[in-house]
Amino acid sequence: MPVVVELPRLSDTMEEGVVAKWLIKEGDKVKRGQVIAEIETDKATMEFESFDAGTVLKLVAGEGETLALGSPIAVLGKAGEDPSSALASATSAAASAPAPTEEAAPAAAPASPAPTRAPAVEVSSPAAVSVSEDERRIPASPVARLIAREAGIDLRVVSGSGPHGRIVKADVEGHAADPSNSATHATLSADKDEFGRPYAARGDVTHRISQMRKAIVRSMTASKFSAPHFYLTMDIQMDAAAKFRSECNMSITGTKISFNDLVVAAAARALRSHARVNSAYTEQGIVEHGDINIGVAVAIDDGLVVPVVRHAEQKTLTAISQEIRSLGKRAKNKELRGEEMQGGTFTVSNLGMFGIDEFTAVINPGEGAIMAIGAVREELALDEDGAVTRCRRMKVTLSSDHRVIDGAVGARFLGSFRDNLEHPMRMFA
């Protein structure tokens, strides 16, 4: 009898998925445990291994199609069997299944949208730009053009007094001031430039919302509107950290320590002294996590993933650096396992490599705080003797859930974090 293959749950928060790529075709023979498709979930694109063996009778789901969990995606069976009856039975069973009651549904779980095919990308063709044969460039100074554009004056009705009839600033101002010219003030159309030529129209582009982007929308919206955020910003002197990093990279072979590695190490050790920041709010009470598992936000093409460095306060700087590098590489290649993105207790988000000096971040659900890291910048400053000197500084902003963390608690944590970076040898003494 044919077997219907259903869309599986491949992550703990997955509510729908997309068949990103089929690795089989109709008529192929499939073994149990064989990878038959790549499924795009809310966290990554993951391989799907078949639980059954048989011949592929029908591929129900098309590539790029968004489906709810449990939706039929393929039918396996013996060669020559008709998949219609099995599909009809599966569809009938799904339709007759009772809808979950309001009490049975998790309080924070958003409703799963009905299966829909991803919208096609539509691009409107640019409108043709028509320019008349006798239209010529009007000689005018840049200032005159600017004044005319702001006043809505068509330069074709202005007489130029400059060399070879060039229109200058005084010509435009004089034309505007003359009441008799009010009727000839041709207001420039929003669709045409100062020469009467229509602007090229560029159509909108609609992009399909990926499963990852949908998950980001759900979790960030829930966090922002349920957790009362407040923000603390601190400026940190980074000369000692820069020197320490340079010495590490000269003495350690095979590993290059980054400022972000130092940030994660400093945060982990500060959390060890300020356990309340390593906490989360729940309806049952404030959970103070025993482990310090630091999420490191990684930007990828589809959005953002947060792989987790577990037991970060117990690891050496070299181990932290190697793990972050490995997680980041596999994140960009969409090779992270689901468990590598779960269990975080605190998150670090670093946009310093993009030249961002300062920003605020939204707390990840299930955590009590997130720290936004800006660029390490060079500045001029006065030393203790009043002499001008160069120094390196970095701004960090702690976003905290006020249900868990008070201002003084967050400030003391940032103070310890700053001390760790301004005296890095203390972290590893």
Name given to the CATH architecture of the largest domain: 2-Layer Sandwich
Side by side, the strands of the main sheet go 10-19-18-17-13-16
How many structural domains in the coordinates?
3
- The chain-level structural class is alpha+beta
* Oligomeric assembly: single chain
Find the count of extended strands (DSSP E, 2+ residues).
19
The level-1 CATH class of the largest domain: Alpha Beta
Radius of gyration from the alpha-carbon trace, in angstroms: 31 Å
Largest sheet: 6 strands, mixed
What's the overall geometry?
flat
Mean pLDDT: 82
What name goes with the CATH superfamily of the largest domain?
Chloramphenicol acetyltransferase-like domain
Task: Give a verbal description of the structure.
This protein has 429 residues and is α+β, with helices and mostly antiparallel strands. The protein has three domains: 3-93, Beta Barrel (OB fold (Dihydrolipoamide Acetyltransferase, E2P)), CATH 2.40.50.100; 142-184, Irregular (Dihydrolipoamide Transferase); 211-428, Chloramphenicol acetyltransferase-like domain (Chloramphenicol Acetyltransferase, 2-Layer Sandwich). The chain is built from eight helices and 19 strands. It has helices spanning 84-96, 142-151, 169-177, 211-226, 239-251, 259-273, 317-332, 407-422; strands spanning 3-6, 16-22, 29-30, 35-40, 45-49, 54-59, 65-68, 72-77, 116-117, 229-237, 279-282, 285-288, 294-296, 298-300, 303-305, 308-309, 346-350, 369-382, 388-401. The strands form five sheets. Strands 10-19-18-17-13-16 form a six-stranded mixed β-sheet, with helices on one face. A five-stranded antiparallel β-sheet has the order 5-4-2-7-9, with no helix packed on it. Strands 1-8-6-3 form a four-stranded antiparallel β-sheet, covered by helices on one side. Strand 11 (279-282) and strand 12 form a beta hairpin. Helix 2 (142-151) packs parallel to helix 3 (169-177), helix 6 crosses helix 7 (317-332) and helix 6 (259-273) packs across helix 8 (407-422). The radius of gyration is 31 Å and the shape is flat. The chain starts with a strand and ends in a 7-residue tail after the last helix. 30% of the residues are buried. The model is unreliable at 99-136 (pLDDT under 50).
